Amino acid sequence: MFDTRRLLLLVEVVRTGSITGAATRLSFTTSAVSQQLSKLELEAGQPLLERHARGVRLTEAGEVLVRHAERIETQLLAARNELEDLSGLRAGTLRIGTFPTAGASLLPPVVKLFKSRHPAVALTVRSSRFAGLRGMLDTREVELSLLWDYEWARITDSDLTVHQLIIDPPMLVVAVNHHLAERDSVDMTELEHEQWITREDTHPVGAALERACHAAGFSPTVSFAANDYQEAQAMVAVDLGVSFAPRMALSNIRDDVRLVPLTGAPSRRILLSHLAEQKLSPSATVLLRIFQDVAARF
């Protein structure tokens, strides 16, 4: 049987990159950390770390243990947070997660309405990308979180309960003087010869654009990969190309661009999620209903 504290100590060594770094962060002596790691290696029956001049490196056995130890750490943090909820240490506080485009569009009217009706409840909001939000649900750092998905990557995690709020349609962003600027709608098949301004490679919208173009029978010619939607709009405005974005991502529209509804491109779902095993607090239940009411009018 492994000692949990030693497993978590090994995780800290990996995070800091050295035994000395872990000792400093945890206010231990270096020798005390080394002794505990030696005992963990005895428990494992094989070496876990390779020492070198710049720090330490995990052995294959060490990698296995760290992977499991990180899961244990997540579960322990979740247990602590749940116990604090039960003990009342977080009474009157509701913690929710969001992502940037929802935080700039759907979330503000929800927060305003909730706070006007329930001013005694302290609302805490955390913003992150998908993986970060999913992790915060697991550790119960947030009780509810806004998430999104596309048709080729549906959220099917049985650990989550998912409430669909909005179908967020795609929009074509063009310069005010573009020949498509006054159209009521545009189909992807009409855009084969356009230059495209997209998001950086790892962004979901980049994948959505690639799929939409391929479904329309062509590959996109990318002239610029933007770090955010405002940057993309600025490049559209100076005729560097056209852009594709979900409608909710376009809450602050420049005067020198136009939005045109786009057919033949995927919509994304905007979702409110929580752990399936977790019974929602009364304040979270109320917030869920407010989200649904606001989303219905959005």
Describe this structure in words.
The chain is α/β, with parallel strands linked by helices and 298 residues long. It folds into 3 domains: 83 residues, Orthogonal Bundle (Arc Repressor Mutant, subunit A), CATH 1.10.10; 105 residues, D-Maltodextrin-Binding Protein, domain 2; 97 residues, D-Maltodextrin-Binding Protein, domain 2, CATH 3.40.190. Helix content is 42%, strand content 25%. It is built from 10 helices and 13 strands. The strands form 3 sheets. Strands 8-12-7-11-9-10 form a 6-stranded mixed beta sheet, with helices on both faces. The chain has a 5-stranded mixed beta sheet with strand order 4-3-5-13-6, sandwiched between helices. Strands 1-2 form a two-stranded antiparallel ribbon. Strand 1 and strand 2 form a beta hairpin. The longest helix has 28 residues. It is globular, with a radius of gyration of 24 Å. 30% of the residues are buried. The model has no long low-confidence stretch (mean pLDDT 90).
